[in-house]
Write a structure and sequence with these properties.
The protein has 402 residues and is of the alpha+beta class. The chain has one domain: Cytochrome P450 (Cytochrome p450, Orthogonal Bundle). The protein is built from 17 helices and 10 strands. A 5-stranded mixed sheet has the order 1-2-8-5-3. Strands 4-10-9 form a 3-stranded antiparallel sheet. It has a two-stranded antiparallel sheet with strand order 6-7. Strand 6 (302-304) and strand 7 (307-309) form a beta hairpin. Helix 4 packs across helix 11, helix 13 (231-262) runs parallel beside helix 17 and helix 15 crosses helix 17 (357-374). The protein starts with 10 loop residues before the first helix and ends with a strand. 44% of the residues are buried. The model has no long low-confidence stretch (mean pLDDT 94).
């Protein structure tokens, strides 16, 4: 038996990283990985603690320049990408993050999200009906991808004619989040960031002048104690909502169904009792985590599991490994659609906990529900292939027939 190793560029590891995580949690729960230049952390307790620890951050630029922090300066050609990303809340730290999250939360309310449920249910039903009418097809391309992009586009107020633009922009921008993206991927991300920013800037200005009942209008006019979002912050927020909510939800749907097909007993159990859909959605996100790794910068020396990680280092928090930790989950490598409790950390923890988690849960529940109801004998046509990326880990397609 060959040794199972941590290698996020290996197709075999991307296809099934879990045997490597078993060994890492037992033998090397905190270690420095030379190829990636990151400290890899794989146990639930450590990942949980570090997500809440303010000595780590998504960024260090609130404290030091790249050079002062021991990092190379960013190439000038990447400026449009980073200007867009850092105008949102994902890659900034308090106090900027605190202010942005407070303002966005005033517009992106629980009531607004819950109000989207009938729309999500209707869209999911229509997409599944089309798949059924055709006798099957690519579940990813025909259901999983169009559902979240149309939901977020409807919520933001993007006109229907423009919505086909969103998915390619989102995919190209998210390519920058993979480990050491190629020069081509970087330039593609810059182009997409520029085009997306220009498009949203025009839409935001139109909504400022003539507000409608959509999220862009709400973000354009949100105010808290006299404070409001700048135009750049509004655009960065809209891009974040689309990218974060879309890419992960697509992968969660595809990975989830692939997990069900590989566990026919649990699929049969879910088909027999649709009341299990909410717990099944949580379990499927735990069992095969769609965003398996998040990175943090170490802002001050920190000790993890008896290992000192120095200031300036980058930490790779392995969500997928934490979600299979036997210290937390009974029989962690077993899919259990009724698992409860299920304290998975798929949506993160701490100040960067996913703002869109409630919407993602609605989309997944309605998507699973529509497929279970309308395609009760859904079956796999062929084993799917994994896309090469690990940070946003998903399938190239999922061919099914009804």
């Amino acid at each position: 038996m060959s040794e199972v190793t941590y290698d996020p560029w290996s197709p075999a590891f991307v296809a099934d990283p879990y045997p490597a995580f078993v060994r890492l949690r037992a033998e090397r729960p905190v270690f420095f990985d030379e190829p990636t230049g990151q400290w890899v952390v794989s146990r639930y307790a450590d990942v949980d603690a570090l997500l809440r620890d303010r000595r780590l951050g998504r960024s260090y630029l609130h404290l030091a320049t790249h050079e002062e922090f021991g990092q190379a300066a960013e190439p000038e050609f990447l400026r449009p990408f980073w200007d867009l990303v850092r105008a949102g809340m994902l890659d900034v730290e308090p106090p900027v993050h605190t202010r942005l999250r407070r303002l966005v939360s005033r517009a992106f309310t629980a009531r607004r999200v819950e109000g989207l449920r009938p729309l999500v249910a209707s869209l999911a039903g229509e997409l599944v009906a089309g798949l059924v009418a055709r006798g099957g097809g690519d579940l990813l391309a025909e259901v999983a991808e169009p559902l979240p992009v149309n939901v977020i586009a409807e919520m933001l107020g993007v006109p229907a004619a423009d919505r086909p633009l969103l998915r390619p922009w989102s995919a190209d921008i998210c390519g920058m989040y993979e480990l050491n993206p190629s020069q081509e991927a970087q330039r593609t991300a810059v182009r997409a960031a520029t085009e997306f920013s220009d498009y949203l800037r025009g839409l935001a200005r139109a909504r400022r002048a003539e507000p409608r009942d959509d999220l862009i209008s709400a973000l354009a006019h949100v105010m808290d104690e006299g404070d409001r979002l700048t135009e750049d912050e509004l655009i960065g927020t809209c891009v974040l909502l689309l990218n974060a909510g879309h890419e992960a939800t697509v992968n969660a749907t595809g990975n989830g169904w692939w997990s069900l097909f590989r566990n026919p007993g649990e699929l049969a159990r879910l088909r027999a009792d649709h009341a299990l859909i909410p717990t099944a959605a949580e379990e499927l996100m735990r069992y095969d985590t769609p965003a398996p790794m998040f990175e943090r910068w170490v802002l001050a020396d920190i000790e993890v599991g008896g290992v000192v990680i120095p200031k300036g280092a980058e930490v790779a928090l392995q969500f997928a490994s934490a979600n299979r930790d036997p210290e937390i989950f009974v029989n962690p490598d077993r899919l259990d659609v009724a698992r409860d409790p299920n304290p998975h950390i798929t949506f993160g923890l701490g100040i960067h906990y996913c703002l869109g988690a409630p919407l993602a849960r609605i989309e997944l529940a309605e998507s699973y529900g529509a497929l279970l109801r309308q395609a009760p004998s859904l079956r796999l046509v062929e084993e799917p292939r994994w896309k090469p990326g690990y940070v946003l880990r998903g399938l190239e397609g999922l061919l099914v027939e009804v």
